[in-house]
């Protein structure tokens, strides 16, 4: 079966969590505008392009439908929905609601030693050279903090929703985001969130998280608009 109509940016998926990688690869292509609205996502074509079986592709499309990226239509299967600045804004609005609730619930539930270690690592990275390794380390710390909060939010359903939206946000950041600018903002924000959690000031932690997601959304939205204008 021909795969010539698929985005050239796709590459074979490495072994590991295949479904998750397929989700991220498809999301990246969506964000780059490589699938037009109404494009039919043919499972077999995608499976051949990625070098995987149909099962992880089918599972990935189910997950993408759950967060509104594709729509399952009768007799057509999964088709692309519109994706642009409006959708970016809506995604971050929902993420902000989820993250604020999670950090408020996690406040007082996280091991102080874990918070202390993270605080020390965020402090140390501020003085390191801004190179590729720094960017990767900053991203890793970002993910660790948000994961720690999700794991202590006291709700498996909320944790699952955070995971879904964080997968989407990660793909957006990789394609749209200005890494250096966003990560510099995040360093200060995350330090403030950790400090609030350490003092068990739950409302302050929620307020800091709210501002953090708002600022991140502004950066991402601006770069998405720039990408559209420069096409």
The largest β sheet comes out as:
2 strands, antiparallel
Distance between the termini: 31 Å
Spatial ordering of strands, largest sheet: 1-2
Q: What is the averaged pLDDT score?
A: 86
Protein architecture, described:
The chain is mainly α. Helix content is about 70%, strand content about 5%. The protein contains 9 helices and 2 strands. The chain has a two-stranded antiparallel ribbon with strand order 1-2. Strand 1 and strand 2 (about 75-80) form a beta hairpin.
Q: Secondary-structure map with pairings?
A:
Blueprint: H1 18-31, H2 43-50, H3 54-66, E1 70-73, E2 77-80, H4 85-106, H5 112-125, H6 132-151, H7 156-175, H8 179-198, H9 202-229
Antiparallel strand pairs: 1-2
Helix pairs in contact: 1-3, 1-7, 2-3, 4-6, 4-7, 4-9, 5-6, 5-8, 6-8, 8-9
Which features characterize this protein?
231 residues; 3% strand; Arc Repressor Mutant, subunit A; globular; mainly alpha; disordered N terminus
């Amino acid at each position: 079966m021909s795969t010539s109509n698929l985005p050239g940016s796709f590459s074979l998926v490495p072994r590991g969590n295949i479904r998750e990688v397929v989700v991220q690869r498809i999301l990246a292509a969506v964000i780059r505008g490589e699938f037009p609205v109404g494009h039919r996502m043919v499972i077999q074509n995608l499976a051949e392009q990625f070098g995987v079986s149909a099962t992880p592709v089918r599972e990935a499309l189910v997950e993408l439908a759950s967060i509104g990226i594709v729509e399952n239509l009768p007799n057509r299967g999964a088709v692309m929905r519109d994706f642009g600045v409006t959708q970016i804004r809506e995604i971050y609005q929902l993420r902000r609601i989820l993250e604020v609730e999670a950090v408020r619930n996690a406040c007082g539930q996280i091991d102080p030693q874990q918070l202390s270690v993270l605080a020390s690592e965020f402090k140390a990275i501020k003085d390191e050279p801004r190179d590729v390794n720094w960017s990767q380390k900053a991203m890793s710390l970002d993910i660790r903090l948000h994961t720690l909060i999700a794991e202590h939010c006291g709700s498996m359903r909320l944790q699952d929703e955070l995971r879904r939206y964080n997968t989407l946000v990660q793909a957006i950041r990789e394609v749209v985001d200005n890494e250096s600018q966003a990560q510099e903002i995040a360093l200060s924000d995350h330090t403030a969130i950790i400090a609030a959690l350490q003092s068990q000031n739950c409302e302050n932690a929620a307020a800091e998280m709210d501002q953090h997601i708002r600022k991140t959304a502004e950066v991402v939205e601006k770069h998405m608009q720039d990408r559209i204008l420069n096409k």
